[in-house]
Amino acid sequence: MDNTNVPAQPERNVGRIIARNTAFGMASQLALKFIGFLFNVLVINHLGDSSYGRYQIVISWATLFAVLGDLGISQFYTREIARNRERASEWFWDVVLLRFGLAVLASAMTTIGAILFNYPTEIVIAVGLYTSSYYLQALLQPLISIIEGNERVDITAMFTVISQIIFMGAGAIFLFMGGDFVWLVVAALITIPLQIVMSIWVIRRNKLSPPPFKIKMFLWRMLLRGGLPFAMNQLSLSFAFQSDNIFLSKFGYSDQQIGWYSAAYTFMLTASMLVYAFNRAILPSLSREHETNPDSIRPWYYRSVKALAFVGLPIAVGGMLLSDQLITFLYPNYYPASIAFAILIWYTPLHIYTSFSGNLATTIKKESSAARIFVGEGLVVITISFILIAPFGIVGASFATLVTEIFGASLFYILFRRTFGPGLNFKKMSRLAISAAVMGVVVFFLRDLNMFVNIGISATVYLIMVWLLHAFSESEIAGLVKLFNRVRVRLMPSSA
């Protein structure tokens, strides 16, 4: 058969795809954090720290039970679409109906649990409203899985920006009209139908296997079994992220103190959100790459870990030394939160590593190993929280969070050491730590300067030290520059 007239299929470039998805993810996170900062100022000024603390209790409590409405099925579905796009239409309606049934269970358990936990009526009402989103998510998340499984995380990143802008706009209107924190939950519900409509439009426009209605209940057992490791990951991470506020409330600490801790914790997570865009981008792309070329994943791990350390270490050092100035600048009435933030900021480099590792484990079909690690983290945080939070309050909660992430990061390092072998080159990694330490000295001695001037000078010193100590090899620098240029072009196409 003559194939001379058959057009050649374009070669798939994993780095370019990840760069595109990371770029859009970073742009969306930058936009969200800027808008979110303004919105948080509004929320705090209108609610006050006590009411803000109650709002955080609602979010924490509902998030703990949210995993029951999904049981990891959506993440499993996303990965399987990335491996075989035929599954988008083959499994879609089974995933939707299964998730809807789970939503009924999750909604009932979340609301009844809040009542049995003796939460005030307004918190129970807010929790009940929040759980109504589970039914809408039963349709939304499978639609998102189709889009992300086809390596279009950039599209879902734009959805996130749009929905968050609408949430903040609606929330601001409700607050100006005199609404309390319950109305913030209502504002969040408004955005989900819009995301559903946008997702359906994108799927049809891009011909991403629009699914016909078809039910195959024999698949449900397979979906539940496949999603279970992801569910364990979600549950454990929910405990690690959200249990602090619940422990603080049940050990008798005031809503005001919970508000302080939540402000510090939220700001700490902001420091790692930009890296989250990269972590989210790698899942579909490296899943498909692992299916065809498993050996290509090993260098991605080594280079990515080093790049994450390059970003995370100066954030931790600088954030600790400038914690009081940063918190005072962002939240003038939340100065006690600076103590918690100085501890929690060290969670950032650990968290971006464990978050990356969890996603990477999924791409190479080691989600069961990742699930065991995250379950271990959940058990550790519960144990340490019982020991530290009652006597030490928000300081104890901060240390419990930090120790838990040290435990998880250590286990992930051992997992990938066994999987990929040595190769992180700790001699050069230590040069990043030395560079961050020198930067820290500069930050300390320039504390009397304007905070932003201090950050600019210190960041420059850090980059110079990294260069002088040759922390990166020439090939690593070339790879990072290439990836940066791809991201820059995606973010600012007019400059290309």
Description:
By secondary structure, the protein is mostly helical. It has one domain (14-424). It has 17 helices and no strands. The protein has helices at residues 14-66, 73-83, 87-116, 121-131, 133-149, 153-176, 181-205, 220-250, 255-292, 297-321, 323-330, 337-344, 347-363, 367-420, 426-445, 451-468, 474-491. α1 packs across α17 (474-491) and α13 crosses α14 (367-420).
Largest sheet: none
Mean pLDDT: 77
Helix % is over 70%
Fraction of residues in β-strands? under 5%
Q: SSE order, as H and E?
A: HHHHHHHHHHHHHHHHH
Structural class: mainly alpha
What is the gist of this entry?
With 496 residues, this protein is an all-alpha fold. 82% of the residues lie in helices and 0% in strands.
Keywords:
496 residues, mainly alpha, disordered N terminus
What is the topological layout?
Blueprint: H1 14-66, H2 73-83, H3 87-116, H4 121-131, H5 133-149, H6 153-176, H7 181-205, H8 220-250, H9 255-292, H10 297-321, H11 323-330, H12 337-344, H13 347-363, H14 367-420, H15 426-445, H16 451-468, H17 474-491
Helix pairs in contact: 1-3, 1-4, 1-6, 1-8, 1-9, 1-17, 2-3, 2-5, 2-8, 2-9, 3-4, 3-5, 4-7, 5-6, 5-7, 6-7, 8-14, 9-10, 9-12, 9-13, 9-14, 10-13, 10-15, 11-12, 12-14, 13-14, 15-16
